Prior knowledge:
By secondary structure, this protein is mostly beta strands. The chain has one domain (23-175): Jelly Rolls. The protein contains two helices and eight strands. It has helices spanning 3-16, 57-60, and strands at residues 22-40, 47-55, 70-85, 93-100, 108-114, 125-129, 143-151, 158-175. It has an eight-stranded antiparallel beta sheet with strand order 1-8-3-6-5-4-7-2, with no helix packed on it. A hairpin with a 7-residue loop joins β4 and β5 (108-114). The chain is elongated. The chain starts with a helix and ends with a strand.
Amino acid sequence: MNIRPITALAALALTACGGPVLFVEVELPRVCLTQARIPFPGAPATGTVAGDVDLPIVEQIPLLTTDGAETVLILDDVSIVPVSGTSPDLSGIESALVNVVPATGAPVTAVRYTRDPALPPPSEIALRGGGVDIAPLLENGAAHLRVVASGSPPASAWTADVQTCVHGRSKVPYLR
C-alpha cells in the first residue's frame, strides 16, 4: 500500500476546510498592568467625574497577539490608588464604573464599584468585573478605558495609579 497518496489526500482535506491546519494555543495567566499618575479632575459638589486611561496591552505583553488570532482577553478588575493631590476623600464616591471605549460603537461597561456605607471610607477604589472580553475592543493593541465616578467625588483635581488586571487565551494559526 502506498502511503503518499493517503497523506497528500489528508493534507489537501485539512487545507480545504478553511481553518488553520496547525495552531498554538496560549493561556495568559492573570497579569496586572499599572498606569502611573493618571490625572482625575475635581468634581462639582455632587455629580459625576471621568478620567481616561489608555492601556497599551499588546505593548506590555509582547507575546499577546490579536492579529490573525482568536484572542479572548477578560478584564478582571481595576484598582484606583490616589498618589498625589489634596489627599482626596473617596468616601463620597457612591459608585464607579470602567467603560472600554472602542474606536467605533458604544462603550462597554467592564467593571463596577458600589460603596458599602457600612464600611469605613476607602483609601482606594476597587472595581470588579463581569467577565467582559475586551479583545475585540482593542485599537492598535491598546484599550481606551474611561473611569466614571458618581456621588460626591473629590472636589479638587487628584492623581492616581490605575492598576488593570486581565487574563485570557490566544489561539494563533501556525500554518494555513
